[in-house]
Amino acid sequence: MTDSLDVRDTQSIYETLPVPALVLDSHSKIISHNRAFTAMVGEQAVADLQGKNAKIMADHPLRSLLESTDTVSWQTPKGEELQLRVQCVALENTESAGELRLYFNERELLDLKVLNHQLDEKLQQNILTDAHTGLLNQRGTVLALEPQVARSRRYNRPLAVVALAVAGSVSGRELMLAVGHLLKDQLRWADLIGVTDKQQFVIALPETDEQSALQLVDKITQLLKELSNDEFNGEPLVAAFGISDWQKNDNATSLIERALQEITVNGKSESTATSAL
Predict the structure, then answer these.
(1) Alpha-carbon distance 256 to 250, whole Å?
(2) What 3-state class would DSSP assign to 185?
(3) Please, which pLDDT band fits residue 269 given cuts at 50, 70 and 90?
């Protein structure tokens, strides 16, 4: 793998590079090496290195390192087995164009990749909002709902959760944004609204029993019909609702899951409704 680099840039960063490196001239003669290279191969191995041709090393102990331009295995003086990826960088703006050769430890690169993945997962776990709608995501909804569940448990007060799935021929992102705005406009300040990982809406309604939640469902159904006509040129939407009300053994997760389970594609029951709008 070959890139290009101005030789002036090389002079400023070469010695401090944490990556083992060599500088070759245009005839492949070794001009210098940095401290990281010395640490990798040992003082004795680099003692007579300067001025040698990297392509003609005969029985030199560094022959495999110097002749390879792809990947190479190497054992350090301490006995550590390394799998190295060699990167060659062309040096420009010099009378005798040369090459900077870098030796990357594949094990370290893999470890960095794993670490970056772990950090990304941890970051995702700490994000509480849905990227598309700006509403609470599933984790954020659960965290926000838990205090409401604790309040219902302590004071034996009603609490309902409405789950809503909406589908249509319009784009998913556009539909989610429109429905999200509609729901936010209709809910009270104490109500919670979020989006699951499967892009279903979850509405938590403190001080609300199942019958009152059903009335809200009827109202939302009518508003979705108006949304279909006003925003999507009458394109049909299909809405499915599910309702759960707080029970003594509920936590936030179980309350949400019960409402989601009540959503059906077809049919109608006491706590579930599906309608084409």
Answers:
(1) 10
(2) helix
(3) very low
> Structure tokens of 179?
């429905």
212-252 pLDDT tens trace: 999 999 999 999 999 988 888 888 889 999 999 999 899 99
* End-to-end CA separation in angstroms for the chain: 58
Q: How many CB atoms lie within 10 A of CB 87?
A: 17
pLDDT tens, residue by residue, 28-65: 888 888 989 999 998 888 888 888 888 887 778 888 88
Q: Is 51 left (phi over 0), alpha (psi -120 to 50) or beta?
A: left
- Mean local confidence (pLDDT), 4-13: 56
DSSP state of 110: H
The residues with which 160 forms a beta bridge, in sequence order, are 205, 245
24 forms beta bridges with: 30, 99
DSSP state of 136: B
- What are the backbone angles phi and psi of residue 231, rounded to the nearest 5°? -100, -30
DSSP one-letter code for 134: -
Tens-digit pLDDT profile for residues 160-186: 999 999 988 777 889 999 999 999 998
Find out whether 202 and 143 touch, Cβ atoms under 8 Å: no
Under 8 Å between Cβ of 224 and 182: yes
Hey, what long-range contacts does 219-222 have (CB within 8 A, 24 or more apart)?
219/186, 220/164, 220/182, 220/183, 220/186, 221/273, 221/275, 221/277
CA distances from 25 to 2, 13, 14, 88 (A): 15, 18, 15, 12
**Phi/psi at 195 (nearest 5 deg)?**
-130, 135
